[in-house]
Amino acid sequence: MGSETVVHEIPTIDFSNKDLKPGSSLWSSTCDQIRHALEEYGCFVAKYDNLSTELATQIFCQSKDVFVLPTETKAKNVSEEPFRGYLGKIPQAPLYEGLAIDKATSLEEMRQFVNLMWPNGNDQFCDIAHSYAKQLAALDEMATKLVFESYGVGKHWEPVAAVRSHVLRFLKYEEPDDKDTTVRFAAHTDKNFTTILHQNHLGGLEVQTKDGTWISVNPKPSHFLLMAGDLMKVWSNDRIRACYHRVKLSAGNGERYSIGLFTFTDGAVKVPEELVDEEHPLLYKPFDNREYIRFYVSDEAKKFDNPIKAYCGV
Ligand SMILES: O=C(O)CCC(=O)C(=O)O
Ligand SMILES: [Fe+2]
């Protein structure tokens, strides 16, 4: 018998069905699908029609409008927290720019960002970006709640839900000059709980499977990649994989735009005791997302291959 080739496909899970309600049979089958996807791939594609194609088109137009602003204006978006604020054409990723809006589901915070970028105001950007952030946060909330329920720990959801906050990040990649398809955002896992990524028609996002194969995430206006970050892996006591991903692009296709909603937990979170047993001894102490990121960017963290283990491993 010849060797078998495993064909990988990131699972697609439908969040658009109106029957997806707690207690329904669809709810419990979706719980199983999500759990399987996160344990196997660390991610899944959420099909989410609640966010209209019109809003999906509008948000990418708004993204273009903000990136054409002068660099000195974009650089006014500063943050004391690592990886937030404005990141422009850094040596590790010279074609990349990122603009992050902290607490993007708050209209007040969104207005502050808009006033920094456009001192004369820009209600259109404010309305579109705020409603986009809220819709993605609702998707994240439903999906994460389903994850908790899939492990039978739904009762631990409320306290975690109460400390979640969201960063909305606009990302732009200039068109490369070289013809080779090359990595433009190095492979990594995200340092937060969950991330939802939405790409424009160019695609380019790739996810690594357990056997080391890279698979492409195909872009569609109603498709959102939900990825587990380091903290969801820790929360699950290593049942869930943190999604290892990168961006690859080549010349001739124009600029790439993507948008991410990064969900953080503010305050200490711990592995639910129900996820600890003889087969699964406790692997992590309680963890704090901001503290972990501060550790991650420190010189100390560079000494370790597995910074999350170094930060909160038992
Ligand atoms: O641009 C993308 O699609 C991915 C960006 C990313 O992985 C990140 O910002 O953490
Ligand atoms: Fe990422």
TrEMBL record:
Alphabetical list of InterPro entries matching this protein: DIOX_N, IPNS-like_FE2OG_OXY, IPNS-like_sf, Iron_ascorbate_oxido_reductase, Oxoglu/Fe-dep_dioxygenase_dom
Domain Fe2OG dioxygenase as annotated: residue spans: 164-267
Keyword tags: Dioxygenase, Iron, Metal-binding, Oxidoreductase
Keyword Metal-binding part of the UniProt annotation: yes
Keyword Metal-binding in annotation: yes
GO molecular function annotation: dioxygenase activity; metal ion binding
A Pfam family it matches: 2OG-FeII_Oxy
Function according to Swiss-Prot or TrEMBL: Probable 2-oxoglutarate-dependent dioxygenase that may be involved in glucosinolates biosynthesis. May play a role in the production of aliphatic glucosinolates.
Family listed: Belongs to the iron/ascorbate-dependent oxidoreductase family.
PANTHER family, A to Z: 2-OXOGLUTARATE (2OG) AND FE(II)-DEPENDENT OXYGENASE SUPERFAMILY PROTEIN-RELATED
Protein name: Oxoglutarate/iron-dependent dioxygenase
Species per Swiss-Prot/TrEMBL record: Parasponia andersonii (Sponia andersonii)
